[in-house]
Amino acid sequence: MVAVMLLVGVSARAQSGSINAFSPYTMYGDGEINTPGTLAQRSMGGVGVAARQAGMINLLNPAGLSMVSRKSFLLNFGGEGQNYYNYQTLGGENKKSAHNSFSIRDIAVLIPLHKGLGFSVSVTPYSSVGYQMMYDHAFDAGDPVWGNVGRINYQYQGEGDVTEVKFGVGYQLWKNLSIGVAAQYYWGDIDRTFVMVPVPISGGGSFGTVSGQSEYSISRFKAQVGLQWNAILNDKRILTFGAVYDLGGDLKPDVTNSIVGDDLYQTTVKGDTTHLALSLPRKISVGAFYQTAKWAVGVDYDYQDWGSSNKQSEMTGVNAATGTAFKVAYRDTHTIKAGVEFTPARYDVRRFWRRWSYRAGVRYGSFQQSFDGHDLNEMAVTLGVGVPFKFLGMSAVDVGFEYGMRGFNVNKNVGLVRQQYFKFAVGFRLFASGTENNEYWFMRPKYD
Question: How many other CB atoms are there within 10 angstroms of residue 164's CB atom?
């Protein structure tokens, strides 16, 4: 547990030291919600609500923690690199930007408390905010800012992360039924700033810069409950159904707002910040997971009531086509995930690569915010491989790759940004259980 707490500090520093997202869509609310789950689960499209696999920490459903071996210890950790590419057509010109980042992705520990009773502690990133934008106010003879000052340059910037610490317990009630509960603690800081730089009309004098900043400090608890039921359980195949319910609620951050101006002419200027609430939605997830000696196939469905629990909206800018204020609001989301894992021969003594696990998956859904009434669709394709350390061992190194897109449906309709991203991750699963596969980490020799 001391080692876990040390790693928690390292993870927090790694996530707060750089921008872990680079998207204009993180300008509002919680920002970009990270795909939950271990790297093995994310490499299968993010499925895992019904997954029950030995040597795996199920971060999606606490009921899966009951699949724990006695006298064992399991540690997961890893890192992830991200590459963002943004594209927009504005005024007949193509605008592009790119950003790279790297951070510690997940840290999780699973230990048995009793037969069929597992306990886990995990530290994972929940959401990330990262954007840098610049906007020149177009000429408008009727606009008081243009009439009194001249051209205005607006600069927007934001960064920050929300981290989730989860304490979960899973218990196997009967042979085919398991339940689980988890307490989740969220903490983090998000800073959003805007700077207004007036460019005076020739001969009109000079004007000062106005800047504003909003600082959000988050510290909040919520809970999660889950269950898993084995419809088929024998030596050849396993079919499991699972469900999870997440309690939502407002993060209720401590907010500090400040606006600083220096205008010699005391001119009225326009500036804005984002006011969408930082909230956690209620979430319902259901899934099915089928396993044989070689294959594992899973399907999940997630529903989150972002819009139902939060009616707040943000009016920002002007729609060039309609001339009306541009509205950003929360909306309910629906996400479908599907994934597959193939292991040619787990017990092949001679050919090491046949013991590798090959993974693939897809994910399709919608972003938690709508823009001027238009939903923002997003999709992703994932690939991965798990390489065991030794024969009959559960310790392994996982490698995962994800390619995703968002905004492709509103790029032409509204002129918003079309975004592509690539993620490359490496994770380690360290499993110790001398009673099952002789994977001893620490052992006192009987003979000197």
Answer: 20
Length of the chain: 448
* pLDDT tens per residue, range 49-93: 999 988 889 999 999 999 888 778 899 999 999 898 888 776 677
- Determine contact, residues 282/302, Cβ cutoff 8 Å: no
Distance of CA 405 to the CA centre of its chain: 14
Q: What phi-psi label fits residue 354: left (phi over 0), alpha (psi between -120 and 50 degrees) or beta? A: alpha
408 φ, ψ (degrees, to nearest 5): -65, -25
Q: Which amino acid is at 421?
A: Y
CA angle (121, 126, 129) in 5-degree steps: 150
Please give the helix or strand (H or E) that residue 147 lies within, else none.
helix 144-148
In Å, how far are 168, 271, 295, 366 from 261, measured between CA atoms? 49, 11, 63, 39
Judge contact between 116 and 138, C-beta under 8 A.
Answer: no
Question: Do the Cβ atoms of 327 and 314 come closer than 8 Å?
Answer: yes
**Dist. CA 331–CA 367, nearest whole Å:** 8
pTM assigned to the model: 0.84
Tell me the CA distances in angstroms from 136 to 43, 150, 198, 243, one per residue in order. Answer: 41, 11, 10, 49
